[in-house]
Write a structure and sequence with these properties.
The chain is mainly α. The protein has 2 domains: 54 residues, no CATH class; 177 residues, MetI-like fold (Orthogonal Bundle). Helix 8 runs antiparallel to helix 11 and helix 13 runs antiparallel to helix 15. The C terminus is likely disordered.
Length: 294
């Protein structure tokens, strides 16, 4: 029997879509403003003429950005951090969440282990002990100092283990009857069926590593070892004249600090803008559709 669409439902849908559109536009406007600033001349920006469309179009700010060896080096460090850190995060999250998703009858002490991980999320030794451990292990000024301390994101483990617990137990039981071992069940059944959850925690891991800046400041003694966000922090909060080159001085008439910073911010945000649409589609998928036939 077809559901009758009432006038009230149509009105609700129209209002709902308008509100969502308004919210989406409000989220996009700041990014559009930054993009417009990056392509505008310094005089137009100083005069306050730029809103959401470039004025006196110029790419001087981007020439300045991609001409900075320090900026490109920091960009590459962030790329390496995302690749290494995300791979390690996903691997350890899956391997920890799978056994913790079992019942106590199948994994004795499961509750104790689960609370052990939860405890580390609620309580920590503090910033100074954390720093001292990293320093004494010789990780300072290396990419591993940015990756290993956050190798096991407990929140992601909780998200994934709860997703695993929602999968039909009949799938694992039938696989074991066919002779499948735990790793076969995990990688050939659980992981393929968990794409929505995996896409979510993958996005958390990528954004977390890419946007992290504080650990780079305190775990790197030399600025050439800064990841991109730590490097941006040093030049956006206070532009360092030491980074200026003769070529940048020639471009000074076409740009100012705001256009340069806007270009660097947009370049830093661009990878996340590219990655997100490919992962977002998994959020809308149903959970284990058609996995169990009655």
């Amino acid at each position: 029997m077809a559901h009758k669409i009432t006038g009230g439902y149509r009105l609700f849908s129209i209002i709902n879509h308008c509100l969502l559109l308004l919210l989406a536009v409000s989220c996009m406007l700041p990014l559009l403003h930054i993009l417009a600033l990056s392509f505008s001349s310094g005089s137009a920006v100083t005069a306050g003429k730029v809103t959401f469309w470039p004025v006196d179009w110029t790419i001087a700010a981007y020439e300045n950005v991609f001409g900075k060896k320090e900026y490109l080096a920091a960009f590459w460090i962030s790329i390496k951090r995302v690749l290494l850190g995300t791979t390690l995060n996903m691997l350890l999250t899956i391997l920890i969440a799978y056994p913790l998703s079992k019942e106590n009858s199948h994994f004795k002490g499961r509750t104790l282990y689960a609370w052990y991980f939860v405890f580390t999320m609620l309580f920590s030794g503090g910033l100074i002990p954390w720093y001292m451990v990293i320093r004494e292990t010789g990780l300072m000024d290396t990419i591993w100092a940015l990756v290993l301390p956050s190798a096991v994101p407990i929140f992601n483990v909780i998200v994934l283990l709860n997703f695993f617990r929602g999968l039909p137990k009949e799938l694992e039981e039938s696989a074991k009857m066919d002779g499948a071992g735990p790793f076969t069940v995990l990688w050939r059944i659980y992981v393929p069926l968990s794409l929505p959850a995996l896409a979510t925690i993958l996005l958390f891991a990528v954004v977390g590593h890419w946007n992290s800046w504080f650990d780079g400041l305190i775990l790197a003694n030399r600025t050439e070892n800064y990841p991109l966000q730590s490097f941006l922090h040093t030049i956006i909060i206070k532009l360092d004249p030491a980074y200026l080159t003769p070529k940048e001085a020639e471009l000074a008439a076409l740009m100012n600090d705001r256009t340069s910073r806007a270009a660097q911010i947009f370049v830093a945000a661009f990878p996340i803008l590219i990655v997100y649409p490919f992962l977002q589609r998994f959020f809308m998928k149903g959970i284990v559709l058609g996995s169990v036939k009655e």
